[in-house]
Amino acid sequence: MKYKRLTKEQFEALHQEFSNFLATQSIDKGEWDKIKADNPEVAEQELDVFSDLIWEGVLSNAQYLEHFSKNHIFLFHCQEKFIQSIVLKALDPEVNFMEKEGLQWLSDNLFTDTVEIHLGKKEYEDGRNTSIFDLITQGAILSDGQLYLQINGIVQS
Prior knowledge:
Layout: H1 8-13, H2 15-23, H3 29-38, H4 40-61, E1 64-68, E2 72-78, E3 82-90, H5 100-109, E4 115-123, H6 128-137, E5 141-143, H7 146-156
Antiparallel strand pairs: 1-2, 1-5, 2-3, 3-4
C-alpha cells in the first residue's frame, strides 16, 4: 500500500464508488461476498488498491493545506514541483489559534512584534503526493486556500 487504508466511515461514504471500482473488475455483490468469505486476503488487497486510488485522486487535486496548533498556523500552497509555506507564530504564550479568540487575536496583532511570519518554499523530496500525504498524516487538512491567499496577499504587498 502506498498510503493508508480508508476508514470504515470513508468506505461507507464512498460505497457507490467502491461498487463501481469492483464492477470494473467484473465483481458484483454476490462475487464480492464470496471473495470476502473464501479469500479474505484478496478482499483486503482490493480494499487497499481502492484506498490508494482514492488517496491518489485527492492528493493530485490538493492545492492548499492548513495545520493549526496552539501557537502556530502552518499554511501550504501545493504547486506542481514545490510547496510554499507561510508559518505564523504567536509569541504570546496565552494565545491559542485552536480557538476563535486566537484567530481574532491574530487579526488584531498580525503586524505587531507578537507575531512572527516565516515564508518558505521547498521542492518535494519524495514526490508531490507523498509529501502532501505526509503533511496530512501530521495533522494538516485540505483547505480552500482562502487564509493562505489572504495572508500571502497582505505579506506580499
